[in-house]
Amino acid sequence: MGIPLPGEIGQRARDILAGRVPIVPARDAATVVVLRDDPLEVYLLRRKATMAFAAGAYVFPGGSVDPRDTDHAVAWAGPPPSDWAAAFGTDERTARGLVCAAVRETFEESGVLLAGPSATTIVADTTGDDWEADRLALIDRTLSFAEFLDRRGLVLRSDLLRAWAHWITPEIETKRFDTRFFVAALPPGQRTRDVGGEADEVAWMSPAAALDRGKAGEIMLMPPTFRTLTELAGFETIDDVLREEHAITTVQPSAAEVDGEMVLIVPDPDHVPGRTP
Known about the structure:
30% of the residues lie in helices and 24% in strands.
């Protein structure tokens, strides 16, 4: 069983399988599932209908790696890039870029900043006008993440992240991403903000509620988001999530022809951690 691929996307799938059109390379990207407790909820953004990729879908904060995210000048505390490289099965340079992109994109898209003045502290509030000016400068790339941290005397807190998943966009898409998923708790004192940009709506939802709304057709969930929510629905608290020994398996949906129709096949998960909801 697969997801139907009608119209133009179905024809593109046929062309890709026949070798008639080239496959677009996948860009490195990072996504962060921001969590809060009582009850366990996730932060979701609805992408604007005008976006070229995943228009109208509810997604977690994230985006492409900026080449400057691999800069060794980025102040860093917590597990080193070598640990993240091992977790995601990649090289240290790529891992450094992924972690930096995860923290940077989360700040850009939610106002949440996983950084602090030292290796054991974290920024308590990021809602002032000066923070907003820096956030916008990061978005338009006039300010690098390393410069941003240095200017404010902050260090990236990689210990606040946990590796969770690895998804690669199907080869049939015209925009493709090689995305590593992280999970992180909303830092004490900080709060998410509807910062606009690529999203036109934001919401906190329990994983189960988001899944129910997706199944009812009330919201659109892409396969990686749906799978991640399914996994998280098996947990009751953030501590339970962060304690999970979660193996990273690369998932890449693929197109196939079934009974004359083009469909997208999403590989089944090896297992769903936590208790069954």
